[in-house]
Task: structure prediction
Amino acid sequence: MDYINNSEEILSRKERERQFKRNEILKAACKIFAEKGFENSTLDEIAEASEYGKGTLYNYFQNKEDIYVALLEMIIQNYLNMLSESANKTDNIFDFLKIVTEELIKFSLNNDDAFLLLTKMRAIPNGESHLKKSKKLEEHLSNVNQIYTKYFNKSVENGEIRKIDNETILVLYRNLAFSYIYHLKYCKKLENIDIKKESQFLLDFLFNGIKNN
Result:
């Protein structure tokens, strides 16, 4: 799962060049936002990192907030695509979450800046006000929640899990997953992560806790 959309649609040379520049700006911005956060980042820094003039940035985005939102839209869209593909592979909630967790770990290994950006975004209480201005992002996030909710509801009906508020389960899973993956990457600094093993451990902990079975 990558976060930059390298579409292979049939485009004119001019359109391909424009898409390439836009993607390069987003990649550079992702690195700056991940390192410094939204508030402490500047357009000058993004321009320097992308190796384009500041004026070029304005050909694609209105301001820093516009870049930030466009970047998150792209990341969440790819996350949504991954969830949809995972949902097509199984109807079982445990298998679904195992696939999703493995994909999240792979994503963190292959996209350092995007993973850090998502982690920082999640750490801000009640989200960020400028994100609410993006209808596309709100729609993506709503679709993401719907996929998880479908599995939670079905699992309760099947007696696989006890009835708990869906939002509570989702918050617990997301916080546990992101925090644990962050711990593996940046605290333990593991060079070789056993993706399947760590995914299974995380889910065992979520569903069984620390009790001795």
Observations:
- The two ends are 35 Å apart (CA to CA).
